């Protein structure tokens, strides 16, 4: 068809969609393999395609699209984070809230300080171009953004709920913290830090956190209220699903517009939507949204890894570095070392502190669990790449030599950590948390990026769809019973439940308070 | 967040998403209204927003995004057409295949000839800028692209299956025909038409149709084969859904790449996917894809109408026209008149011909039904606008006076036909096809763009999801029984069924041949 303003874009979209499809198929075929996972498959396919393009274009280019932050932050990240909030086990998440904030926010700050100071001290000895204090602090933020997807694919949510929710929750808070830090660094003049500037910085940081959360909660509640009041599903499921998708995206874009942390906003919007809105829609909308959000998140993730793999071979960046391979290797090694140290310096002391406040022995983190948490945060992923591009390039191109080295080193660290650490994750966790946590069925069932429940659960089949917290909490199984005895009666949670039941649910719907649509298929099943 | 390369794009995306949400809510509230429908609501909201933007920018601009064909043809159109193929009642569609092709292809050609010759003759008397023969032929193609969504929202698929499938199928074939025509016109040098060039043109046209269809069928079968062979759903529903979405989109982009008719390709890909692939996936994937595709199509449609409404007030285009409002009004009236005449000249003779070949009286089109078909094709929509922009602007801007008049006239015709004809559709059809076709429940239930079944059907509730052709064909109700007696035993269809059952289904899956996944929720329900 002649209606293409831009033949190149049709070419590249076609190739990209074909590669995404092949990633899914190959990822599925390699599923039984104990080393591989979907991220590594996508990275590998991206690298191979990059090599082929490099040969066919005779070394001119290795990628079909220039790494575009807008694409990443406006289209690919929102579905991933929203789905994370939507599928999170809310009870677990809020029960371990303090620990998640401890690891996610305080841990990221520790790692940030160590990487920043470490690079400042160590890079002086290497012959790299000029970097100012803002660049060093940015490096701290860039290399504090972890990518725990890889570990989550191996951990089993049902067998180690505490570990899973800490690693998962920490990952989200960590993303938000490092991006908020990064933005604060770009905004503030940090060449002369005074106590008052520091206080302003911290105030800004807190303001970000609170307003972003409130915005997400607000938009989520509005969506619940509209859908409950209007009984949309009575006439059209599509309208409900469309409204949920649009409102979720709206929360993200509004946060962007108001210069808030859009990641936190859309995450909390996802939590609120799964707690209220999801219960107000029809049966089929529930199944649809649950799987559609997971699918969108899944496609976005593969997209990012494919992209990073393809971009890694971009010839332009490596040219500036090729004259001094030693320096570049040194920078990458230093960064990798600082990542390992920074992560250790946050996980082990924080685990020690959190263990102090726990009464029951069984609830404390064992050394093996601490090592698992440490390992889960070693991988660096797409957020690091996106932040590095933002700091060290101008519209995808690198001019200064120092900046070029930073970009190539970031890619090296991301590739190395994802591939090498990623490949070791399955065997390592099998070694650390044996048998109980990695039975063969459990591992194959939890290969989804965010698998809230195993596929074969019956509730989905007879229409009583899987609520992230519903159903199974009614039957106290050994683990949750033990946890219930171990943790002190949580008074905050008790009052929240009371408030939720008496004020929130009657207003915004939710389990047990969803509108009864006469003659609808949900009626006989839910009531 | 500071990570936005382009503040303007964040602004406009936020506003656009907010407007889309409000369209859904307002559209829902106006549902009971006998005049309004979702398209008109979106157009009206777009117009209002345009006015507000016009005032706030002090007359500089009325839209937040420049009309972008790439956006339209690469992102918005594919989900709409794919969903049309995916949700079509295949039996009805193929039973009336000859009639659909007759109305869709031959009818469009008649309308094309009439509009082209009519404009050539009538525009000479008006003082408009220079237009060459290519422009006149393009106008023929532009104003032959109908938009029957409006009528489909009012017709009931179950009560007038023949009428519905003819109007629906014709709409899809018409879209494809007019776009293929338009492209052929742009490609061929039509300043001196010889018989050999005409033959080449026709050959090209046929080649387009056949190869495009085959590509769509091929990609659809590959997706069915992969999903059947790999039993993907065993481990992850998300992977199945992702693969279906990606393969569908891949078929569209491949057709674009090979310069075929991507609309036909993705339409047939949708048909094949719903006939084979859809039966090979798990229960929850089936519900998810069914609703997710419908939702995407729904959002795309509202997006387009909102866009057209907003773009209609673009000040730049009207400036060139404002000096001679009479000429512009004349052009619009002529075009509107030619649309009415061209449609009449195709529908009534073709209905007469098709009635000649029908044995049973009850199967012939009555005059009232003919008027309904005529009316259904009077609306002009987003395809017309996109084609007009392609022919008469260069990257969204209009330089020549003649071109500016063509753009504004196109918008006038689209707005007038959608709003005025659209508002009259419900009352008119209520008048022409009374009681039986527009009972109050039926109308409120079929307000979806492509509602395959009413919401309250029980099969969806107990997991046996609604297959577009399955289930209800087993219980011969009066209408289908009458049709069965009326139409002669279709031998082609008989042999196809035999071939389908013995060769195709065992290979590609499909109803009754889907893989049995042990322990999966589909097993006890389907077998």
UniProtKB/TrEMBL annotation, chains A, B:
Membrane topology reported for the UniProt record: Multi-pass membrane protein
Compartment(s): Membrane
Catalytic activity as recorded in UniProt: Na(+)(in) + H(+)(out) = Na(+)(out) + H(+)(in); K(+)(in) + H(+)(out) = K(+)(out) + H(+)(in)
InterPro entries for this protein: Cation/H_exchanger_CPA1 (IPR018422), Cation/H_exchanger_TM (IPR006153), NaH_exchanger (IPR004709)
Predominant location: membrane
Keywords: Ion transport, Membrane, Potassium, Potassium transport, Sodium, Sodium transport, Transmembrane, Transmembrane helix, Transport
Gene Ontology annotations for the cellular component aspect, listed alphabetically: plasma membrane
Pfam families per the UniProt record, alphabetical: Na_H_Exchanger
Residue stretches spanning the membrane: 12-30, 42-59, 71-88, 100-124, 205-227, 248-273, 293-313, 334-353, 373-392, 404-424
Region listing for Disordered, in residue ranges: 440-476
Molecular function via GO: potassium:proton antiporter activity; sodium:proton antiporter activity
GO terms for biological process, alphabetical: regulation of intracellular pH; sodium ion import across plasma membrane
Domain Cation/H+ exchanger transmembrane as annotated: residue spans: 24-429
Record-linked PANTHER family: SODIUM/HYDROGEN EXCHANGER, SODIUM_HYDROGEN EXCHANGER
Annotated protein name in UniProt: Sodium hydrogen exchanger 2
Organism of derivation: Hibiscus trionum
